[in-house]
Amino acid sequence: MKAYKFLAIAAVAAAIVACGKNSAKQMAEAASKVSATSSPAVLTLVGDTIPITITVNYPKDYFRPDAIVNVTPVVVYSGGEQAAKTFTYQGSEVKDNYPVVSTDGGSVSEHVVFNFTEGMETSYLELRSNVVYKGKTVDLPAIKVCEGVVMTGKFAKGNGYYEYRADGYQATIEGSKEGQIKYDINSATVKGKELKGSSIANYQAALKEAVANERTTIKGIEIISYASPDGGEELNAKLSDKRSESAEKAWGKITKGIDGLEAPSTKSVGQDWEGFQEAVQKSDIQDKDLIVRVLSMYSDPEVREKEIKNMSAVYNELRKEVLPELRRTRFVATTEFRNYSDEELAALSGADVATLDETALLRLGAISEDPAKKESYYKAAADRFNSEAGKYNLALAAFDANENAQASTYLGQVADQKASDVLNAQAVAAIRKGDYAAAKNLLDKCDQGNEAVKRNYGVLALVNGDFETAADKLNGAGGMDEAVAAILAGKYSQATSALDGDESANADYLRAIIAARQQKVLDAAKLLASACKKDPSLKEKALKDVEFVNVAK
Which one, of 417, 357, 445, lies nearest residue 168 by Cα? Predict the structure, then answer.
């Protein structure tokens, strides 16, 4: 940090009047050793304020034991000046409560904050002091501490970070169509009424629809036959095989008039213990939990059947309600639906989208570049499907449009107000209102592993002037916030990377600052010229910018 001489010959002359020859002689001898420094070395804008710590170093034998010194930091700028609080120091023999400066010398530091005012870009900080000795007050010459204000922080957006919820949209959707027929006990005969029943009728309709739909592909068809788990295992295996054969023969009748189907594969399961357990769980049988426990205790099918039959009352219920449903063959067609591509959805966005489902609306919102349309798609998902993702994303779309009050309203409609992404979005709303304490309180309740949360801590660090932490938390975010934080933290490589791909005038201006700070004067001049060509208004800013004091403009 640059040090400035605190007392000049004029100060000594003024001190002679106040303190007498002996004191004047002592101060004259020490004058060249008194210095003032500041941290940062140049006034730096942080948010809307300019915080700075000023340190005055007094040499030995300078400060008289019975003297008082008043020091007032003042920023002088075009159009006016702004004074901070006056700080008072006393010698060791003064009977008062000010900080004491010993005749042995020492340093005193004070932290002051100036409110930024237009015109301070070209300014300087000086210390205006006087000495009070034996009832007399003598003004000392003003001491210039530093010049200019680093305005680089003005380039930060500080709008906060958030992540849209995933739309869940799938390029292809796997599905299945199924119908089934049932058999009489110990029979493999396919009954005519089963082929005319609602299950097969619905299956036939689904197959016809799949074949007719150019977006749907039937990936495979399987005929799966079963026997109920009553009777011997070997007997039921044979019965299941016969049902498979009869069902395969019935397939031709089921698919008559439906073209383009491949031959089905067949599978005989035998005793359907898995289906039995599932059916028992779904039933209203009083002792169903007991039955499930029996199934879990024994792996041998014969032992299972025997134990269940020993529960005579229960078995009668099973025989009536469960077992008949397991004497069956299932016809299963596996399908794949090719969903609308982004391009097709975009084309649909100009037409009636009332037929689109929730995920399609969310996808349209995600790919739309028109803010009004993006909002309309998310609102449609929220209104038509009570979509939580739609409500949340609607709030973020409002943030994108800088409609912050509306964003907060939408956020209030999300069901889970304690969800981490909702809390983070609420923190963003607080950041945009300038309520940084509330923002931190909300972020502290979020998932600390989330990138958006981490970056919002970086935004808070940036507005609080903790540039080192800001650069760390914003690392990898890219954009102006990270670039500004890294520049002010002296991490120029990180700042350069943060600007990759940004060819805007502001990005070139920041690149020029980076070059100037690295003493690459020619590079800085070229980049500054590029920035001003893209945005001529930046030329006036550059003329006042302390970052470019050594760069030809």
Answer: 357
CATH 2.60.40.2550 boundaries in the chain: 4-150
**CATH 1.25.40.10 domain range(s) in the chain:** 391-548
**Is 428 within 8 Å of 456 (Cβ atoms)?**
yes
- CATH 3.30.1330.60 maps onto the chain at 172-338
DSSP one-letter code for 350: T
Q: What confidence tens digit (pLDDT) does each residue in 434-452 have?
A: 999 999 999 999 999 999 9
Q: Give first-to-last CA distance, the chain, whole Å.
A: 26
For residue 30, which of 5, 69, 62, 68 has the smallest C-alpha distance? 62
Distance between CA atoms of 411 and 423, rounded to whole angstroms? 9
Residues 422 and 84: their CA atoms lie apart, in Å, by: 41
Inter-residue contact 53 to 467 (CB < 8 Å): no
pTM: 0.75
CA 419, 424, 426, 431: dihedral to nearest 10 degrees?
170
Peptide bond before residue 40 is cis, with ω within 30 degrees of 0 = yes
The residue type found at 529 is A
Looking at the DSSP bridge assignments, the partners of residue 178 are 332
**Under CATH, which number does the domain 4-150 receive?**
2.60.40.2550
Topology classification of domain 391-548: 1.25.40
**Which residue in 171, 541, 522 sits closest to 360, CA to CA?**
171
State mean pLDDT over 275-288. Answer: 82
Q: Which helix (H) or strand (E) holds 244?
A: helix 233-254
Assigned token pair, 46 = 């942080």
Query: Rounded to whole angstroms, how far apart are CA atoms 442 and 424?
Result: 7
What would the CATH number be for the domain defined by 172-338? 3.30.1330.60
